[in-house]
Amino acid sequence: MLAAMAALEEAYARRGAPPSAAAGRAGDRTPVVGYVGADMPVELLTAAGVRAFRLTGDPASDSALGDRYLGRGVDPMARSVLARLLAGSFGELDRVVVSHDCEASLRLFYALRELGRVEPGMRPPEVYLVDILHLPHRTTARYNRRRIGEFAARLEAWTGRPLDLAGAVAAHDERRRLLAAVAELRRAVPARLTGRQFLAVANAALPVDEHIALLERLLAEAGRLGEHTGRRVFLSGSDHDTPHVYEAIESEGHVIVGEDHSFGDLLLREPVGAGGLDALAEHYHHGGPTAHRATASERAAHAATAVRRCRAELFVAYSRAGDEAPAWDFPAQRAAIDIPAVSLERQEYGRADLAALAVPRKEDPCAV
């Protein structure tokens, strides 16, 4: 394995583990912040100088505490995150910041807030909500700008220092640019990265400057990457905060060359650019077309464009039990694309019904 890819895989394996909370010159401890949700303005976390990482679930761990406080009707990914938080799996967190990207994230926020109020013995971290909305209205844009400003002020109060917003935005925009270049390696024919490898590259648990350095090394070594010639799959639907489903699908000889969830291609959004908090609010107002915040027609149009771009041969719409929203979009998506499509509904967290993927290729005269 290439040195850069090995380092990124190692950092991906550490996802969900808190970075060390180093002390400053005067002995001040740098706050450690865990965050949840696709709408998190990570640029502000970087600008504040906190040690931040995205909280993830674990399909193999006990989710009883999450089931108890959220109920089994909520997306099991959120239930797993809550269970791991309450069990101390993320170490000593100073705060948890939750974005309102879907109903499950909002329910997680309410549960943590109420547990801090009525169960002080459990001592969950202080929780804060970043409530970004996505309606196409000027009033929504103004609402989002206020929420972004409030979060920036709260971070300055937490850390006691001003934000370096310009530097943070520039760094995250550069990371997006490099990730987009890496994504082209996966879209190549044959693919130079698997979907599982791209998950590791995109979600490596690293400070943004270290991530940038490794992405540059990976691109410099790209000529030595292998080739992957399995059936090219576009994966739509639920988020994947672990590699389990990717590994299962690719173990059957497929290669995932694109997706539309927030741990994958939707990280490759347009740059924020200049403009400070106004530009940042605009950026997150117009977030990617996830199943929880876009219309069926928007999702179908995105699917048609993405499938052509990555030259996929099979469209797989995946939705977990407790996260049914992606399944509602499948009829419109299937009508908009010109390749075979299958829907995997009510799947267990971290699992996929592989038998459903055995559909004929379009060029097969028996295809339907």
Low-confidence stretches: 21-27, 363-368
Q: Could you please say which CATH topology of the domain at 17-159 applies here?
A: Rossmann fold
Helix content: 40-55%
Distance between the termini: 40 Å
Based on the structure given, which CATH architecture of the domain at 17-159 is correct?
3-Layer(aba) Sandwich
Q: Which strand order do you get reading across the main beta sheet?
A: 2-1-3-4
Query: How many strands, which pairing sense, and closed or not: the largest β-sheet?
Result: 4 strands, parallel
| Shape field | globular
Overall description:
Helix 7 (165-187) runs parallel beside helix 9 and helix 12 (296-310) packs across helix 13 (325-336). Mean pLDDT is 92; it is low at 21-27 and 363-368. The chain contains 13 helices and 8 strands. Helix 5 (103-118) links the parallel strand 3 and strand 4 (126-130). It has a 4-stranded parallel β-sheet with strand order 2-1-3-4, sandwiched between helices. The protein has a 4-stranded parallel β-sheet with strand order 6-5-7-8, sandwiched between helices. The chain is globular, with a radius of gyration of 20 Å. It is of the alpha/beta class. It has a domain at 17-159: Rossmann fold, CATH 3.40.50.
